[in-house]
Amino acid sequence: MQNPPDSRAPDTHAPDSRDRCKKAYDRGCMWGMSGRDDSGCPFEEDILVDWWHAGWREGYEAFMKRHPEGASAGQDMQRDVG
What we know:
The chain has helices spanning 15-33, 46-66, 72-81. By secondary structure, it is mostly helical.
C-alpha cells in the first residue's frame, strides 16, 4: 500500500481509522482497475476522499498498463456488465 496521501494520516493508535482508510483506498483501487474515471468517489470525509483517490490512481495506472488502448475499454466493460 502507498504512503498516506498527505500529512493527515490516520492515527496509528486508532485501528478503526486505519481500517476505514484502507477500505477507502481498496475501493478506489478497484474502481481504477476497472478503467472508470475518478468521479465515482463515494466518500465525503476529506481523509477518505484522499485515500480513495490514491487507490484510484494506482488502480487506474494498472488498468492502463493492461489496456494501452485507453479508458474506452473500461467504459465498454461497464456497458457490458450492466
